[in-house]
Write a structure and sequence with these properties.
The protein is an all-alpha fold. The protein has two domains: 172 residues; 165 residues. It is 52% helix and 0% strand. It is built from 18 helices and no strands. The chain is elongated and about 100 Å long.
């Protein structure tokens, strides 16, 4: 009977790789039913009271079936999520995933396995560890002397969770997966680790990659700096160098500016540093879309309110009038060498002539004295081009021009040499 049962388990594990999803699903549910029954009625004779009888080997067979290397198993994994609500199942799944990663990635010799790594991420990313030991009340099977076993201890769950994620992240990830991990790191991984500071190496490497990955790494670094006293050398220098034209266009723009606002909120920051950020943001604003500018201008106004020493960038009548006379050095990497405090914000003056009337109106605010109350930019962070367009379409025109002078020539002059070629019919 034991041999027949083992043959049945082998057949079911093979069927988890079947072409039909219905077959895979039935095989998965049947195996999990076997897990539950084996836990209650163990096949191995218990030698002494209090021994844990959870069928780890059978669960490992299920986990291996959920993590194929040649196809995306996200649909089957989503079907498995209901079993992860059991605290004991989740604990042993984390152990099984850690073992699987060690075996598979060692054979791969640091070569990325996109399907396998994506499947692992799909399985482990929704896992949530309880906040308190008293919340651990849902178990598939309760054992004798339950309170004495590791599976009932929150600390053991956190340790297994931490070890699983560290084993997953120590291997090279595909770029798309890197971003997915960083998006959830600050609220779905770090809070459930015994030692969140173990993520320092992963985050510092991600922060040094550049582009969107660096922007996303900011969230995790922010948690470690503020809550775990991480000291990151040259943090503001690196943050300053993240400012490039793409920050106004990436889909993570709102998250980035929210964190940038937090990092520049301290009144103890030197004036030269804040001035360098203001100048760089203003210079990049010359090529930014209107929806980004409507968020940026109140953002800069808030910086002037927090750091009054930087207001001379606005109120400097003898300052440069265009880029050729500007002493500001945008290409230098160190903000202390940018000479931003010797410059002025002629870029904002240029934005006062912007084609979008809302941008021109917002930029004109800096011509007046700023109020003491900071602007709330939270509602502007997610502003999109669609919302701006929708707002303009709904506007009701009051005065409609009925006469106009027809344009002649390429540049609109009557005696233009191009007039005969570009005359409008």
């Amino acid at each position: 009977m034991r041999h027949r049962y083992n043959d049945c388990v082998d057949c079911l594990s093979e069927l988890m790789g079947h072409d039909s999803f219905q077959v895979k699903e039935l095989a998965l549910c049947t195996l999990m039913k076997f897990v539950e029954l084996e836990a209650r009625y163990p096949l191995i004779k218990v030698e002494w009271k209090g021994t844990l009888t959870f069928p780890r080997e059978l669960l490992k067979v299920v986990v291996d079936g959920l993590l194929p290397m040649d196809e995306n198993a996200s649909l089957l994994i989503s079907r498995f999520q209901e079993y992860l609500e059991y605290d004991d199942v989740r604990y042993f799944v984390t152990k099984a995933v850690t073992e699987s990663i060690a075996q598979v990635m060692q054979k791969a010799k640091e070569r990325p396995l996109p399907f396998y790594q994506q499947n692992v991420f799909s399985l482990i990313s929704p896992m949530i560890i309880p906040n308190k030991e008293s919340d651990m009340v849902k178990f598939m099977v309760k054992q004798d002397n339950w309170e004495e076993l590791k599976v009932s201890k929150l600390q053991a769950h956190k340790h297994a969770f931490e070890k699983m994620w560290l084993s997953f992240l120590k291997h090279k990830l595909p770029t798309g997966l890197y971003k997915k991990v960083l998006v959830i790191l600050h609220d779905s991984i770090l809070p459930y680790m015994n030692e969140p500071t173990l993520m320092i190496d992963f985050l510092t490497v991600a922060y040094g990659i550049g582009g969107a990955i660096s922007l996303l790494a900011l969230n995790g670094l922010f948690v470690l700096i503020h809550q775990h006293n991480l000291e990151y050398p040259d943090f503001y220098k690196k943050l300053y160098n993240l400012l490039d034209p793409s920050i106004y266009h990436v889909k993570y723009r709102a998250r980035f500016f929210h964190l940038l606002d937090l990092f520049l909120s301290s009144s103890h920051l030197p004036a030269y540093l804040v001035a360098a950020f203001v100048k760089r943001l203003a210079r990049l604003a010359l090529s930014a879309p209107p929806e980004a500018l409507l968020m940026l201008i109140p953002f800069l106004c808030n910086l002037f309110r927090r750091h009054p020493a930087c207001r001379l960038l606005v109120h400097r009548p003898s300052g440069p009038e265009d880029m050729s006379e500007d002493p500001y050095l945008m290409e230098v990497e160190d903000p202390s060498e940018s000479r931003a405090l010797q410059s002025c914000l002629w870029e904002i003056q240029a934005l006062q002539n912007h084609y979008h009337p809302d941008v021109a109106k917002a930029a004109a605010v800096l011509n007046q004295s700023l109020s003491e109350m900071e602007d709330d930019i939270s509602g502007l962070l997610e502003l999109s081009a669609y919302e701006l367009f929708d707002k303009e379409v709904k506007k009701k025109a009051t005065d409609v021009p009925l006469e106009f002078e027809q344009v002649r020539g390429l540049f609109g002059k009557k005696n233009d040499i191009f007039a005969e070629h570009f005359a409008l019919a």
